[in-house]
Amino acid sequence: MDARYNALFIGKVRKEYGIIDSTNNEMEHLLKVGSCPEGLVITAMEQTAGRGQMGNKWSSEAGKNLTMSLL
Prior knowledge:
Order of helices and strands: EHEEEE
Low-confidence stretches: none
Shape: globular
Number of strands: 5
Strand content: 25-35%
Distance between the termini: 17 Å
Mean pLDDT: 82
Number of helices: 1
Strand order of the largest sheet: 1-2-5
Structural class: alpha+beta
Helix content: 10-25%
Largest sheet: 3 strands, mixed
Radius of gyration: 13 Å
């Protein structure tokens, strides 16, 4: 197995944002451009167009919710 995909810890690589549309959108973008190691955690203080389960929308006020995506 390629070592890039053998993460020992979730969050070993983390990207933090102040405001972002969606942590899921950012994860999808990073996967497409090939810069997304396994275990990556993307966090944001505030997101404006987040997505939840089954197509639900998720918006958050700054610092009020846990907004993150994990690979």
